[in-house]
């Protein structure tokens, strides 16, 4: 008999509270959080049992100073999710989930992040932060009156020759419990997201002229490390960040309409007492779409297993069933597989039967890695969820949505 668990709100819970733990939430641990001159009661969330490590959080919840701004800088929702979640994954190399607690960034506010995304020759907006507000993207290099007949062509060319590289700056704080029972800032992780294609518009008297330029990977890497150095110097001017390690993670987005997210490509640490990254380490991460020509050429064995799984699933119904997979690779090895199966169902009995078939029969054809299978109707209505968290797990967790 398959195990069934209600996982409807699992993603939210994992982000806020997750970390390896027992079968039940551990007893919440009350501490005192130091906030300015005021001692404030706070709670460290308990641990939950998941297949991945997540940081415990501090309550009451303190929203980040630039909360929600990311959607204006990063176009693809897949990139937003991967950038945020991947940043916590990279943080674990420096800040242990057993010792440190997660908090959204409290140093960078919305005006500062917005100003940093501008060009170096643009006028920054007002900000109460004392950090340098100068834009971090290259100067446009030209000034042309909008009424000039050559305005459009000159501006399109200038943007093409001087593309914006930096698309977003994301800050995460990691707190550590001090000897007196309070918590204090123990470290900061800063994610810098960069374009793979720079999309831009030139507005001339109400008419919009779009343009785009694909950025070279090596040039992005070069600009990324230079910008990270500038950010590190700026952050060190804040008294709160004077003596804590700062981790930088560099991320490159995919195209706007990509069905897979981009990936982190480098990370580095600004050690205590330093103003710069001592050395950069390459991050070997990638997302591969199944089925695709790229998967067939680069990941042949996994591609063949997925194809067998897909064929088995499609044999269940006489009508066509689309099966799409996304594999997450680290250091060349498949670490996780996410699959979406949209089907035109005729009733709940069909959903239950089909889910049972996928979980007990077809799932065994896939590579032996953590797998998530999302089964939905043709109108994007979620119908069932299958989760196989660990490679040693004999039976997957299954949830059938009642609505």
UniProtKB/TrEMBL annotation:
Keywords: Signal. Residues 1-22 form the signal peptide. Residues 122-143 are annotated as: Disordered. Gene3D superfamilies: sex pheromone staph- cam373 precursor domain. Residues 122-131 have a biased composition (Basic and acidic residues). It holds the Pfam family CamS. This is CamS family sex pheromone protein. It comes from Fictibacillus norfolkensis.
